[in-house]
Amino acid sequence: MGENTYRFGMVGLGVMGRNFLLNIADNDFSAIGLDNDPEKANALEQEASSGHRIKGVTSSEVFVRLLETPRTIMLLVPAGKIVDDVIEGLIPYLDKGDLIIDGGNSHFSDTERREKSLREKGLHFLGIGVSGGAEGARRGPSIMPGGSRDAYPRVKSILEAVAAKVDGEPCVSYLGPKASGHYVKMVHNGIEYAMMQLISEAYDLLHRGAGLSVDELAAVFKGYNERKLKSFLVEITASIFTKKDDLDEEIYLIDRILDKGKQKGTGKWTSQHALDLGIPIPTIDAAVTMRQLSALREDREMAADLADRPKLEETRADKAIMINAVEDALFFGFIASYSQGMALLQAAGSEMNLGMNLEVVAKIWRGGCIIRAAMLEDIMKAYRKDPGLSNLMMDPHLSNEMERCASAAREMIMFGTRRGIPLAGLTSAMWYFDAFHTSRLPMSLVQAQRDYFGAHTFERTDRSGTFHAEWY
Description:
The structure is a single chain. By secondary structure, this protein is an alpha/beta fold. It has 3 domains: 8-178, 3-Layer(aba) Sandwich (Rossmann fold); 185-436, N-(1-d-carboxylethyl)-l-norvaline Dehydrogenase, domain 2 (Orthogonal Bundle), CATH 1.10.1040.10; 444-472, 6-Phosphogluconate Dehydrogenase, domain 3 (Single alpha-helices involved in coiled-coils or other helix-helix interfaces), CATH 1.20.5. The chain has 19 helices and 13 strands. The protein has a 7-stranded mixed sheet, sandwiched between helices. Helix 1 runs parallel beside helix 2 (38-47) and helix 8 packs across helix 12 (282-294). The protein starts with 7 loop residues before the first strand and ends in a 5-residue tail after the last strand.
């Protein structure tokens, strides 16, 4: 390596890109970053430690010239047209065999298109999902690579060095060709939506339904995180309930945050493609819908005065009973969420020839990422026993766990329904569980109706083939 050349390049020196590059430098790899904003380029060098070989520049030509060949360039820029613009701006300076990595939340179809286009130009391309937020990027994220198999060995040692570690194993592994990495990251985010929705419903049940104070909620969620619900999202929820408002130290910040959920689109993408493949993911769908519904705040405020709402303060439940029941209900919902996401990955892997190993997916989700949770160990074991498992609810251990928690989930759904507490996530998880475990659903009537008005035909239980009845 020459004195003035760098092993790894990063385009986009916002917080995520800068932190990821500093993580690379922490692991003794030389790195160079490119950003149009001189302040961001300067910030990279200012935040670096004295032992780092790291540089920030604002010129694409200089950036490419200072990289070792064949070059390795990662992009951490907003998804969409800007990714194409950055790639197009780099191509004139690149040589055949160079590697471009997209580390943003790009739609998998865009990743497939870019991989094909760059391959035709003699360039390698990897689409990599990175989860863990800014802190994860700096200290160790979960990394989900897919794309050019020939190019992955070039960055394998770097990605394994910067990734989170669980039991000494890096939370990164090559997942498959084309858009495998970005597809897995998309579904990861869909599961994240579902888990966050379920936790928000648990909060509502305990806070409004049982009258727990914010102080009590912090202690309850801290306890949850020490048992079977141990996970990053439950851990940070306990922490959130301890935060006072900087503008008024008598008030907890959670009570001052506007209840309008926002989203960047990955949950919606997950729902849309699941519909395309015919894979039911109702809890993820419900989470997306609730964020959309929460945005209708003005309408909700007016509608709240139109209906006679139950008086929660008059019908609150015993706190101890509720705390235990909500813990089981939340655990039930978490398993349902993972089941739906993994079922989608299993189907998409076959349909799109992505070649994903779901045991490996669960393995790299155990550390660094937003949906890391202790139960991923059981999920990993389930796919180790049966790599072709179509749904986690068919694994004996996880099925027994859901059955054990189902009564508590049903009680919480009835409790919330009677008191007007919306539980879209938990309710969808329950009907998903019930429908999946029902050998004969009432779709026979739907098929009869379709044949009646549209002659769409139906199948019979007693013989093969398709049939049409003269209904009138």
